């Protein structure tokens, strides 16, 4: 029943929407559904779905006028003692990647067309296929919503005190000073450098920028040390990948603390988007890496991680 579908059918649609959203200079299209309803949640595992599947489920929620972001497979609903209403069909299919390395098999160069190993290494690229997993919304079942109210939003807005505790609970090196003009993470010093809060228009701008730099901080070689499976040669494109990763990480965490989002530095981010637009798979990978970065920061924050987005358990509900 799990159908394999090609990467092009997934990436082209999702990345096109992501690019267009970033070009509006606002992230409220992402954040509003989450703030209103909470993050999309699996009914059995209580896990929050990942960035890309959350976007797929947002579409299904809006298209079918569902109110509650609670989902599960037929098997999961049945295991909980509930059933799908007669005549209901799945209106949402999340995606679970199955990696397939083209040009190589188990690290051995493919000799097709008599290509040399050096040529194969130059052209080597990870591509993905996906299996789909059909889901049913709680409104398509006979489940009593009152049993699952703890999985429903809205997310309390502007949780400044909680975001301060979150940032302070992550052991990292930072300098905040009037002498600093631009926020930056120095990977050489492993240090976040930020202008004083008075330099920012709002308290929100300061904290969202801090989250962006913490997103970069996760990329240190002693932490996540991101090495995405993408074929991007241009130096600027690789920088763009990292900037978009940090921005999406910031958007996820900012929303979890109830902050509505516009791009903090729209011209800067849009410049990176333009450099990466011809690499749709790189943008897909950036979204996945952003999810991992946000997850890593939540683990480091421990009890001060946002309660609206608890740490995922080991499962494949994606």
Automatic annotation (TrEMBL):
Residues 175-287 form the Polyvalent protein metallopeptidase domain. One of its GO terms (molecular function) is single-stranded DNA binding. Residues 9-132 form the N-terminal domain. Residues 102-123 are annotated as: Disordered. It comes from the Bacteria. This is Uncharacterized protein. Pfam families: ArdcN, MPTase-PolyVal. It comes from Leptospira biflexa serovar Patoc (strain Patoc 1 / ATCC 23582 / Paris). Residues 114-123 have a biased composition (Basic and acidic residues). Transmembrane segments: none annotated.
